[in-house]
Design brief:
The protein is 44% helix and 10% strand. The chain has a single domain, classed as Aldolase class I (TIM Barrel, Alpha-Beta Barrel). Strands 3-10-9-8-7-6-5-4 form an eight-stranded parallel β-sheet. A two-stranded antiparallel sheet has the order 1-2. It is an alpha/beta fold and 381 residues long. α1 (7-17) packs antiparallel against α15. The model has no long low-confidence stretch (mean pLDDT 95). It has 15 helices and ten strands. 49% of the residues are buried.
Length: 381
């Protein structure tokens, strides 16, 4: 067994163990994937200031995100089809997050349902919602999240239409995979994954199948999803969701200062600077590049988080230095899950936390609350 020291180690192992269509689903961007690559690459351009002869004892990475105590300023982002990276994937990731002390977010397009997560965890989790044309279905889903003790709702704003991801089309992505010759050959090389899937009944979209009128199986679900993602989404719809929910509301997918100001006006509790992991508008700027002007415009009025490209604790520290109250990780979690199940998600969180803690110390700080642009080399951000 290889020694795991980085998120990249987990990615390599996940690529070996997860069927190609599901690994590619998590590890791809839209069109040329330029924004997907920029999300990671732009972090590397930001340089840190090393400080010495500073007492590095009693360090703390603990903080809060929308008033919730977190061990580090990281939450698990909503990732569709997580339960296809590994059997019962959302349950395992939620358990790992709970034990570690950070929030877990369940995607609308998850394999395990809201009720599955509630039954298998004790800590309140977050639920991510897409705007659908069927308002009754949305209201019912919001009510289910409330009954499941979800402590925040994340409304994703940047998926009114779906960006084209070439790999998904070429792989013929479906959940579960269709028994084509290419898929059967590929699955034959993933015995660990196949055994896990044989041991669970969760093979479809648990939040939708059996809960939404007209969706009884994968074929009808596909047609429903294509019809239901609402291209008419407006700020009036955000107000409707806020009224229906009544709790903490986080808006994900903000990349522009003007939209950030509108998000503040909507009464949201936090915004996530995000380009959907480079999976929507290819050619958009990276999340870490979009972050500083948004923080400058609205950071004193609302919690600003960022998502996209985080593969290390150093990335988390850089985002925090540039004003992000919190960060979200999607692919780092998916790689860990695909590689080693719950233990892999735990390992991913441990890797990120250790890098965050040690890098913070080298930069002369012992408390994450005191980190600001002073830890960054001028001219590199």
């Amino acid at each position: 067994m290889a020694v795991i020291t980085t998120i990249e180690d987990l990615r390599v192992l996940a690529q070996k163990r997860v069927p190609r269509m599901f690994y590619d689903y998590a590890d791809s961007g839209s069109w040329t994937e330029s924004t997907y690559r920029a999300n990671e690459d732009d972090f590397q351009k930001i340089k840190l200031r090393q400080r010495v002869a500073v007492n590095m004892e009693n360090r703390s990475t603990a903080t809060t995100m929308v008033g919730i105590d977190v061990k580090m300023p990281v939450a698990i982002a909503p990732v569709g089809l997580t339960g296809m990276q590994h059997a019962d994937g959302e349950i395992l990731a939620a358990r790992a997050a709970e034990k570690f002390g950070i929030p877990f977010t369940l995607s609308t397009m998850s394999i395990c349902s809201i009720e599955d997560i509630a039954a298998n965890t004790k800590a309140p989790f977050w639920f991510q919602l897409y705007m659908m044309r069927d308002r009754d279905a949305m209201a019912a889903m919001i009510e289910r999240a409330r009954k499941a003790r979800c402590s925040a709702l994340i409304l994703t704003l940047d998926l009114q239409v779906i960006g084209q991801r070439h790999k998904d089309i070429k792989n013929g992505l479906t959940a579960p995979p269709k028994p084509t010759l290419a898929n059967i050959i590929n699955l034959a090389t993933k015995p660990r994954w196949c055994l896990g899937m044989l041991g669970t009944r969760r093979h479809s979209f648990g939040n939708l199948v059996g809960h939404v009128k007209g969706v009884s199986d994968m074929r009808s679900l596909s047609a429903w999803t294509n019809e239901q993602f609402d291209p008419r989404l407006s700020w009036a719809d955000v107000a409707w969701v806020k009224q229906q929910w009544g709790g903490k509301l986080i808006l994900k997918g903000i990349q522009d200062v003007e939209d950030a100001r509108l998000a503040v006006a909507s009464g949201a509790d936090a915004i996530v600077v995000s380009n959907h992991g480079g999976r929507q508008l290819d050619g958009a700027q990276s999340s870490i590049t979009a972050l500083p002007p948004i923080v400058a415009a609205v950071g004193d009025q609302i919690e600003v988080w960022m998502d996209g490209g985080i593969r290390s604790g150093q990335d988390v520290l850089k985002a925090r230095a540039l004003g992000a109250r919190g960060t979200m990780i999607g692919r780092a979690m998916a790689y860990g899950l695909g590689a080693m199940g719950e233990a892999g998600v735990t390992k991913a969180l441990q890797v990120i936390h250790k890098e965050l803690d040690i890098t913070m110390a080298f930069c002369g700080h012992t408390n994450i609350e005191n980190v600001d642009t002073g830890i960054l080399l001028p001219g590199t951000f």
